[in-house]
Structure formats: C-alpha cells, structure tokens
Design goal:
The chain has about 70 residues and is mostly helical. About 45% of the residues lie in helices and about 10% in strands. The chain starts with a helix and ends with a helix.
Length: about 70
C-alpha cells in the first residue's frame, strides 16, 4: 500500500525521471498471485488492492487488469 500511495503522490517525479509525459494517466495497482488455489478466497475478501491470478493475466491480458477489483 505504501508503494501504491507513493507512486500516486509522485507521478510527476516518475515522469520527469523517465522523461515521459504522464498527464492524464491513472495508477491502478494490482497484486498478481501464482497460486490459483488461494485466489477464490482472496476474491471474497475486501482488499485495498485487487488480486489477479497469473492465469487470468496471461489468458485475458489487459482486460483482466481493467476489470480487476470489480
């Protein structure tokens, strides 16, 4: 959570460091888990950062990230 908060608060610093314009971009953090057996239990919990299984990320790509936490 600290990393997520830091990135959101310092997006301008990241843009300056890597010489990219991040205006209009939004930070959406996710936690990717390799162990699919834990994933159903994590989905039931109220968590500050959404969890994705590596399988969903591989099979659905950006759509899985886009729908994370919904």
């Amino acid at each position: 959570m600290r990393r997520d908060e830091w990135i959101k608060a310092n997006l301008d610093q990241l843009g300056a460091k890597y010489r990219i314009n991040l205006t209009g971009f939004e930070v959406r953090s996710i936690f990717v888990t390799q162990q699919d057996m834990l994933f159903p239990h994590l989905k039931k919990m109220s968590l500050p950062i959404p969890f994705l299984s590596s399988y969903d990320l591989t099979s659905k790509g950006f759509q899985a990230v886009k729908n994370a936490g919904k």
